[in-house]
Amino acid sequence: MFPQYGQLILKPQLCSLYFHHTVILLLLIDRTGQSETVTPSQTIITLVGEDVILPCHLEPPSDAVSETLEWGRPDLDPRFVHVWYEGQNHLVNQNPSYKGRTSLSTEKLKQGDLSLKLSRVKHSDNGRYRCFFPSEHKESIIELLVGSLSLPTISGININNSRVVLQCESAGWYPEPELLWLDGEGNLLSAGPTETLRGPDDLYTVSSRVTVEKRHKNSFTCRVQQRDMKQSRETHIHVSGDCVAVPHFPADRVSIILAICLILTAAAISVWKWKQNRSKERKRHKAEELLMAESKKSEELQKKDEELKDLGELINILMKQQIDLKEVKKELGDQSNTFASEVENLPKQFLEEDKNTEKDRAKGYMDLKSIIIKSKNKLLQERLAYEEMKTNIERHLISTQQACNKMRNIKTEAEKQKENIILQLSEIQKQKETIHKKSNLESNQETLNI
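RESULT FIELD:
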């Protein structure tokens, strides 16, 4: 709960804002007063990428967990590196470059240890840090020096049979280093001026040359050092009479390098063998798949051949049936025409019979006429029956023609499918030949490697 001031009550949505500004106000007010030193000022040296502790202790020790503590850099805006307020971190106004890289220990705060842990230090972390304890008006100034370094390299340039120019170069230093040449006994050599370049990343590159004589077992050292950081790196080289310059490394370093090389070589061989075995396994699986595909396609091709054969026979049967139906249709047409002609001739026959019977009507004129009429009706019925048969045959002819056309279409599609299967079989054969050639080539290569 926040206290009341007269009739004014702080609203809940203003609580966090009030808390933040209260902390900042307290730090600003306390900063205006006189401060005493918590611990003596000191310089901390570290390298890029390491974790570092910026020391700060209360004297005498006292519990600072429920107090306010500010770690800051006066040259930054905002200046706050890490703020502790009444038992918790208060990082609302923390400088963005320190986000996620600072921490305080609650256990150490109980013992009056206000030290700040800064992780993964960068060149931009170089500067003066202020440890400020407002409740007792105490502060401590810490100078952080973040450096970087690298191993120098030496190369040789022949001048003549007796002298050689050695060049030493080392990059990635901070702060600015110095470069020295030493002989085999550790004495300084007179060398040319050191060239110093500062890159856009504020890192320094130094280089220098020295002219030396070629002698048996003549050795030299290039040393690059940074006095403020008390750090140095050096490389040795032997210059023999035939001007073979070989950098010298300590025996333990050589052993480590050899061990690493052996491990890397063994790992490379293992990876290569694993890849070879994996490649062979993939090719074996591929070959098996191709064999199965080839067998399947061969079966499909055989079935298509049988299907085409059956379709050809069926088409032939339909065509023969079509021819037979046409012949029957023709015969029925001829027969129908015959019946029509006979029906037309019946009246004439009747008249002839009638003339012949006028002499003797007793022979049964009426009976003869009745017989002729019945014959005519019968001929008409037979003609109708033939016409109906002719119509049915025509209908069967149309059905047969349609069936024949359908079978031809099916046969054409089956022939296309057959051609497609043949192409697929050809492609499978090519893939098999390619895999076989690659396998033979790899086997020959392995034999040569052995």
